[in-house]
Prior knowledge:
alpha/beta; metal ion binding; nucleotide-binding; P-loop_NTPase
Amino acid sequence: MHSSDHNQSTLTLHLPDEDATASLGQQLAPLLAPGMVLWFDGDLGAGKTTLVRALLRARGHSGPVKSPTYTLVEIYVISRIYWYHFDFYRFNFPEEFLDAGFGEYFRDDAVCLVEWPEKAEGCLPPADLMVRFRFAENGRAVDVVACSEEGQKCLKALRSGWPDAAG
Length: 167
Ligand SMILES: Nc1ncnc2c1ncn2[C@@H]1O[C@H](COP(=O)(O)OP(=O)(O)O)[C@@H](O)[C@H]1O
Ligand SMILES: [Mg+2]
């Protein structure tokens, strides 16, 4: 796996195949703490749900992890921590986030994992960490961007644990 740094707050990783995406989920999983918000950006089929699935499995969830495309949110309780997996693809307006009362899910005993955050722009609480996927020649590339002090700690640990990661 190949990676490079743009600056202190962004780690760019190349994910040649689905296993690499799963591996990122496994690396990220132990670094997350209640209260954190993660945004997952990227086109349909980029790998957002694949990453979330690996992450939840690595935290001990053994059942299926379905895409919340139709339900908007899927809820997991793992070792007393709430994990809310959102997908706002189907929103027509960001205000639907408020109408649905989703603001109440962003608590300090919950981790919020958000696909299509741009569809709730202006209504969604800010991210600690953003994972931005793009299609690369082989597989995918991701930018992992830290947006808070919590996020910076995560990124630092991720960088030191990822094979070939610079810095
Ligand atoms: N790094 C990768 N390289 C190539 N294919 C991948 C990679 N990561 C995931 N995939 C595949 O791409 C698809 C991603 O689907 P999904 O995770 O549902 O995307 P999204 O949630 O972004 O719409 C899956 O078929 C998965 O097997
Ligand atoms: Mg998805």
